[in-house]
Amino acid sequence: MSAPVIEVVDLCFSYSDSEVLHNVSFRVEPGDLVAMVGPNGGGKTTLLLLLLGILQPRWGKVRIFSHPPALVRSRIGYVPQQLHFDPRFPLTTLDVVLSGRVDKHSLGPYRSRDRARSREALDRVGMADLAERSFARLSGGERQRVLVARALAGEPDLLLLDEPTANVDPQGSHLLHELFQELRREMTVLFVSHNVNVVSRHVNKIICVNRTAALHPIEEIISEAFTGAYGGELAVILHDLHCHITDVSRVLQSEHAGTRRWEER
Amino acid sequence: MIQFLQDLSDYAFLQYALAAAVLAALPCGAIGSFIVIRRSTYVAGAISHCVLGGMGLACYLRQVHGVAGVTPLMGATGAAVLAALLVGLVTASGRERLDTVLSAVWAVGMAVGISFIAATPGYSRDLMSYLFGNILMVRKGDLMLMLLLDVVVGSAFLLYYDRFLAISFNPLLARLRGVRVEGYELFFLVLTALTIVLLVQVVGIVLAIALLTLPGATAGLFSRRLAPMILLSIAFSLTFTVGGLALSYGPGWPTGATIIELAAALYLICAGIVRCRDRLRRRPGRVPPGASPQSGGKGRLPE
Fold this sequence. Notes:
The complex is a heterodimer of chains A (about 260) and B (about 300).
Chain A: E1 6-15, E2 18-28, E3 33-37, H1 44-52, E4 59-64, E5 76-79, H2 93-98, H3 112-124, H4 140-153, E6 158-162, H5 170-183, E7 188-192, E8 198-200, E9 205-210, E10 212-217, H6 224-230, E11 234-236, H7 239-242, H8 248-252
Parallel strand pairs in A: 3-7, 3-9, 5-6, 6-7
Antiparallel strand pairs in A: 1-2, 1-4, 8-11, 9-10
Helix pairs in contact in A: 3-4
Chain B: H1 2-8, H2 12-38, H3 41-64, H4 72-93, H5 98-118, H6 127-132, H7 140-169, H8 171-176, H9 181-220, H10 226-249, H11 255-281
Helix pairs in contact in B: 1-10, 2-7, 2-9, 2-10, 3-4, 3-5, 3-9, 4-5, 4-9, 7-9, 9-10, 9-11, 10-11
């Protein structure tokens, strides 16, 4: 059995007094395409930041490729949900994608190989024609696709995406999900989905996050009516069957709950 | 202007002044563009004003304690780098309010400089040249230091350009690509400090901030990409410093002030031209290139 790409064990995290994640454990294997779902405020983005090593667990451990996340960042591609940037910042689309390879060359300007990889990445998200367009002039959905290209340009082994299709039109969303399916052959992909009940049918695992988290293989339930409504590309998640998130309040009253820092124990 | 050209071949001080104008303009255009897009002019302002402390200390050590070989330019370099490190470390710690620290560095640096100058016999008259620059007083030794600073700033800028761009665009994304954001922020501030030292020689402490921002701002009117913006900014910097020097020489105007006035005038003219151009493009009834005549739009009359 190969080593897991992501291994989370007994993870607890709190912002000051309020506990956001409690006793989270799961493993993601190489080649998985994982959707992370859950209600707003349930801790999805926090969990993603813990996987990136931006936040540190109060308790438990996070390992990416068997190492702490901060040590393997060059192998992780990340696409944020929203990018805060100055709209007058003078960058083209290609410049933004190139910045995903900033760690791939030593010093001096980007090499021709960096430019080639960046253009390939733009092509994969269907944005090759807009390479020279000002990044600030793109629509929200186009920017999101460029950020996916930026992450791909870094040639990651693990791709983490925070609601990558939230601002993308249906056609762009379809294209991105097709791309994720294609990327499974090259890397492990985990994305946060903004839709609690519906995810792409291509995912093979789902992590349901609502203060605690549970990972399950996807159960596809596609009725005729559902297929008619969503085009057969999506699957329904029945949380009560697969994700035991309704008993969170009871779990949070167990011994780990409270305001003490876990490492102080 | 004509008298400047005539005298240029005869007077060494004028040749030194021209060389100083060119040496200051090159990094000014490059670093200045970054300062404009990063919106960190206040940081540059604090560092440049703090430089007076170092200049005052250098004068004091030289005159009162007989420390030979210490020049105001060296004092300026030390103070600028120290201020940059202080501002950078405070920013990285995130514990203090940045604007408060910048205001303190700005004012304390000037206060220390004035105190040292006051304690140095016969140096009070130099205060004006420190504050507003005197490019005609540049000596050969100053030019050597300026050349060294040019080489340091220029080569560091070329080598780390993409890192500076990445941390300026989005520090979090840069950090996740393995870039040591705090280290590069500090490094960029030090390069800013060295550029300010070059500018202080030309336009003085008070006016340096204008020369660090106006060329970049003017270039930004014409370019939506950073690399062409930097090249344009360097061209504008050269135009302002050399043009201001040449314009001020004949009538005997203060050179630093003339350089800044020329920069401001050209910025206003360019901004006016760009605004008129944009307004003409958006004029009602004008069909944008590539748009279908059937698509309606602002200029379409109601039926």
